[in-house]
Amino acid sequence: MKEVISSIQPFVLNQQVYIFEGTEIIDQFSARLMDLPENLIAYCYGNNITKISLKGDSHFVAKIKQDTEKREMTQYGESKLQINSI
Fold first, then answer.
1. What is the DSSP string of 36-73?
2. Using alpha carbons only, what angle is made at residue 8 by residues 12 and 41, rounded to the nearest 5 degrees?
3. Which CA distances in Å does 45 have to 35, 42, 56, 78?
């Protein structure tokens, strides 16, 4: 099962996002912190991935999770992404 994982670094403009299948990195991309919710949704919907794990400062991770969930509902009218804090 594929999973998107990112370690959020609040003071770094471009965030690194890794796509895992099991224990192997199969893809990666970078996104500006302010564009991360939109990029996560686009990548997940485009690649049939439903699981996202975010690591980092709990306040930043909570904000990104909230923004991603809100944007997903606005764009697609559904909430199929499972976003976890690790």
1. HHHHHHHHHHHTT--EEEEES-HHHHHHHHHHHHHHHH
2. 110
3. 16, 5, 24, 12
Q: For residue range 32-59, what is the model confidence (pLDDT) as tens digits?
A: 999 999 999 999 999 999 999 999 999 9
Domain boundaries 2-85, CATH class: alpha beta
Token pair 């904000």 is found at 63
Query: Which is nearest to 42 in space by CA: 82, 66, 71, 83?
Result: 71
Q: Please report, for the chain, the start and end positions of each structural domain, with discontinuous segments joined by +.
A: 2-85
Q: What is the pTM of this model?
A: 0.93
Report how far residue 8's alpha carbon sits from residue 56's, in angstroms, rounded to the nearest whole number.
Answer: 5
